Amino acid sequence: MGLVSTDNDTMRRAERYKAIVDYFSVAMPVAESELNFRTPYELVVAVMLSAQCTDKRVNLTTPTLFERFPTAEAMAEASAEEIYPYIRSISYPNNKARNLARMARMLVSEFGGVVPDTVEQLERLPGVGRKTANVVAAVLFGREVMPVDTHVFRVSRRIGLTVGAKTPLQAEAQLEEGFPKHLLPIAHHWLILHGRYVCTARKPKCGECGIAPWCKSAPKDKPQQ
Question: Is-catalytic flag, 221?
């Protein structure tokens, strides 16, 4: 998807992907979700809450939420109004409370309380969009998918891993084609953590960036590491 590349452009992108993989394989051999969770159910809830909200805020919120609703069965018995007070500090708490209640009911009624292991089944759950489904599938089940959030979308475009991608779905397709399939679950975390702490939205730290030599957007008139 996106712009059609020439053979030379494709070769350069392939070289860029290899360089990025080689760098992160050494610099960040372990890269995991920063959301706190103990069970698959808790991960689904945490990822749903993290939409347009920081992981730090979610992690401050979920302990009391999970104490009150420790299982999908417990949450399935609750109304949105009962869930709301526990997530009021999260962005869009009304919508998320409704979605959590509906998600838990379907999880119990159609899946026996067991989180499904495919993206297609996960997307059936209310409030679970493609990005959330991909995150859960990658983190829990090691599925070879690429969740694209705002960090991944921004970083992949800046680096030059995606070209002309105008939507997360287009970026997802290009990234899934560019990275080796078996590395997709960790590559997602490489990009999101890099975007969160180095390639930030407003003031990217290009001078501190280990992949600046391969980045299409890094200043070329400054020393690069």
Answer: no
